[in-house]
Design a protein that fits this description.
It is built from 11 helices and no strands. It is mainly alpha-helical. It starts with 48 loop residues before the first helix and ends with a helix.
Length: 303
């Protein structure tokens, strides 16, 4: 029996890798794009505090004027008792030649008195803050000046001062003086104890402490006094015109309208006085926002 030849070992097939089968390198990571910042949604127009401060008082005023007009019409009140708002506005336009000039005179006296009261009040406050003894000795007289009725003092000032305009400016300035003194003195005293100790440690002079520490601390109080004093200056000017019984201001127009029973003109003059007071307050509030809006909490807070 023949033995078969041993079979030759079979060579293993060589597998050639196809180029497409070659392992691919991992793709480079793509940098993630930064997420776009979400723009804050603007609140509705009526939800904005600035709009509300204007719209709400205007709406209340319109409602009151409508009630006034409705009551005058329904009760058939004569104009010499209570004029209607429509008649008052007509009188304001028809008599503007006289009322406009009187408004300018009253505004001039008010502004001059306000400036005098501001300058005098700030200087007196600077004097008070230099020494506690000086403040203790003189502050009661400032209070006495505030509580004395200007109606009782105005006739004497008008007699002593020959110039009618100057006498009325002095009377109005006396009415507007105390809020400036009180608020500014309080602000100059309201200094952080640590900051005051720091200035003393660095041997700061009185002038340096006043200019760099006390005055910045007193600014919010000072502007609060300005808002009060501006309205009081207008009241003092009107009272001085009433007491003097002369001149060409709005108070004089009210007196003349009362003598002539021209009640619509009287109401028109009262409207101009009220609008002047509102304008002064708005102007002082704007100055406060400009001066303190960048750093003080009273103007930067949105609560």
């Amino acid at each position: 029996m023949s033995t078969p030849f041993p079979s030759a070992p079979m060579a293993s097939p060589v597998v050639t890798a196809h180029p497409a089968a070659a392992p691919r390198s991992a793709p480079a990571p793509v940098a993630a794009k930064p997420a776009a910042k979400a723009t804050p949604k603007r609140p509705p127009l009526m939800a904005q505090p600035r709009v509300q401060r204007v719209v709400y008082p205007v709406l209340v005023g319109l409602v009151l004027i409508a009630l006034w007009q409705g009551l005058v019409t329904a009760m058939e009140l004569p104009p010499y008792l209570v004029p209607s708002p429509i008649l008052m506005m007509k009188t304001l336009f028809t008599d503007w030649a006289a009322l406009g000039g009187s408004l300018w005179v009253t505004v001039k006296i008010t502004v001059l008195a306000f400036v005098v009261a501001t300058v005098a009040g700030v200087l007196i406050s600077f004097l008070f803050v230099q020494s506690k003894r000086i403040e203790t000795a003189l502050f009661p007289y400032a209070v006495l000046l505030q509580v004395t009725p200007i109606v009782a003092v105005a006739p004497l000032i008008i007699i002593w001062v020959k110039d009618p305009t100057a006498s009325m400016v002095i009377c109005a300035a006396l009415v507007a003086l105390f809020p400036i003194i009180s608020n500014t003195t309080l602000g100059l005293r309201s200094v952080e104890p640590d900051l005051q100790s720091y200035f003393q440690l660095n041997r700061a002079t009185r002038l340096q402490t006043l200019l760099r520490l006390r005055i910045p601390s007193a600014l919010p109080y000072f502007f609060g006094g300005l808002r009060i004093s501006s309205g009081l200056a207008l009241i003092g000017a009107v009272v001085a015109e009433f007491v003097a019984g002369q001149g060409a201001g709005l108070a004089y127009q009210i007196l003349q309208a009362g003598f002539q029973l021209n009640i619509p003109r009287m109401f028109a003059a009262l409207l101009l006085i009220s609008l002047t007071g509102v304008a002064l307050f708005v102007l002082m509030a704007w100055l406060t926002r400009v001066a303190l809006g960048g750093w003080h909490a009273s103007e930067t807070s949105h609560d």
